[in-house]
């Protein structure tokens, strides 16, 4: 059942090229340069006209929501807010008739998300769902949406469900941007090609980087704390990397936007602290390179996820993991893969039950 792997988590990490491909299949047509998402098309007018889109989710799905915020604001020029479902539901949020709520959930059964949506729906909001489990409570409650096609995810830590969510959210953002004409035709065609190339690039990471990641895992398996830093589209990936590490290894980890380091977390940096930088080549690259230098100057251990061929970062980092070059808009789907693997292998080194971490359940159906 584990397909020859030691754990479901590893099997599911390895299934990601397929899960991403399946989430685009029948939707993205590179020849015609079209995206077909019937559930979204049905509400296209309301979405385009919306004053704001509120994304509601928890945990890893909330991190996918943060990536979507950056995507939708940039590509569609619609204001987006990302809310923890639990906070949103209890604070009597302002919801007006016709507001668009986008729910993201692997299980479709997360209690906090479900109740938040029920409340919003009763106030006249349009509920769109990005859900993995077909026919689940959130899927049934949504007016429309688009399923992720990740297949069943057994490991408690979300891996392939997350990259499938990012894929579907990219499709939604590009679809709306195309309808709204908020991006030009060349950029639209370019981004469709970039998205289409993601499964092969994920496969390339899985094929080439595991020995290096295992080595890093052995080196840092006894660390007490980790810091994860990223900017822009990679900021939510830093949060996701830290969450994965906590869940799977029980090592304390925090994720931050790299520029926030100087507002506090830099006080933690000493010769005992590994700092993971998600530092792929994008518009912020120079800035993150100077953050790397700041950590080095304080004797922190820099582990960097970098773009293939980035010699500057290779020289600077104590350890690095390379991923293929990609537009920054699709880069998070690639940059999260090494972080999933790092957590997995540290968990294995520490003899942890990686598929069923203590105190956690696959779907949190209690408040
Ligand atoms: O099923 P959902 O996507 O609604 O679940 C949300 C969170 O409970 C979930 O992502 C959780 O944080 C995972 N354990 C993360 O690995």
Question: Low-confidence spans: pLDDT under 50, at least 5 residues?
Answer: none
- Secondary-structure-derived class: alpha/beta
- List the helices and strands in order: HHEEHHEHEHEHEHEHHHHEHEEHEHEH
Helix content: 40-55%
Cofactors, ions, other ligands = 5-amino-5-deoxy-1-O-phosphono-D-mannitol
Radius of gyration: 20 Å
> Rough shape?
globular
The span between the termini is: 32 Å
Strand order across the largest sheet: 4-3-5-6-7
Structure, briefly:
This protein has 16 helices and twelve strands. The protein is an alpha/beta fold.
Overview of the structural elements:
It is a single chain. The chain is globular. Helix 13 (235-249) links the parallel strand 8 and strand 9. The chain is of the alpha/beta class. The strands form 3 sheets. It has a 5-stranded parallel beta sheet with strand order 4-3-5-6-7, with helices on both faces. A 5-stranded parallel beta sheet has the order 9-8-10-11-12, sandwiched between helices. It contains 16 helices and 12 strands. The model has no long low-confidence stretch (mean pLDDT 96). The structure holds 5-amino-5-deoxy-1-O-phosphono-D-mannitol (M6R). Residues 58-61, 105-107, 110, 113, 156-158, 247, 360, 363-364 line the site of 5-amino-5-deoxy-1-O-phosphono-D-mannitol.
Layout of helices and strands, plus pairs?
Blueprint: H1 8-14, H2 16-24, E1 28-29, E2 34-35, H3 38-42, H4 44-49, E3 52-57, H5 59-76, E4 79-84, H6 85-90, E5 100-105, H7 111-122, E6 126-131, H8 137-141, E7 144-145, H9 160-180, H10 185-196, H11 198-208, H12 210-220, E8 225-230, H13 235-249, E9 252-257, E10 274-278, H14 285-297, E11 301-307, H15 311-316, E12 319-323, H16 331-349
Parallel strand pairs: 3-4, 3-5, 5-6, 6-7, 8-9, 8-10, 10-11, 11-12
Antiparallel strand pairs: 1-2
Bound molecules: 5-amino-5-deoxy-1-O-phosphono-D-mannitol (M6R).
